[in-house]
């Protein structure tokens, strides 16, 4: 699945760190793997792979990209 970040709150230090790693509004990414219980999720963003837990991504809004 491919998706694009459309909104991201900035009041969390964790979300600020995620933005510093390249996952910003307008960035397109690809879901590579999802763990058996759904947490964490591995994504391919800007040429590298990033593993994120659901708690870390709370508040990030995405839309599917064809």
How far is the first residue's CA from the last residue's CA? Answer: 8 Å
Sheet having the most strands: 5 strands, antiparallel
- Give, in spatial order, the strands making up the sheet with the most strands: 4-3-2-1-5
If you compute it from the alpha carbons, what radius of gyration comes out, rounded to the nearest whole angstrom? 11 Å
The total strand number stands at 5
CATH uppermost class: Mainly Beta
Number of helices: 1
- Judged by helices, strands and strand pairing, the structural class is mainly beta
Q: What ranges have pLDDT less than 50 throughout 5 or more consecutive residues? A: none
Shape: globular
Helix percentage range:
10-25%
**What is the overall pLDDT average?**
91
What portion of residues belong to β-strands?
Answer: 35-45%
The ordered H/E elements are EHEEEE
CATH topology: SH3 type barrels
Tell me the name of the CATH homologous superfamily: Ferrous iron transport protein A (FeoA)
Description:
The protein is mostly beta strands. The protein has one domain (2-65): Ferrous iron transport protein A (FeoA) (SH3 type barrels), CATH 2.30.30. Helices cover 12% and strands 42% of the residues. The chain contains one helix and five strands. A five-stranded antiparallel beta sheet has the order 4-3-2-1-5, with no helix packed on it. A hairpin with a 6-residue loop joins strand 2 and strand 3. The longest helix is centred in the first third of the chain and has 8 residues, at 13-20. The chain is globular, with a radius of gyration of 11 Å. The mean pLDDT is 91.
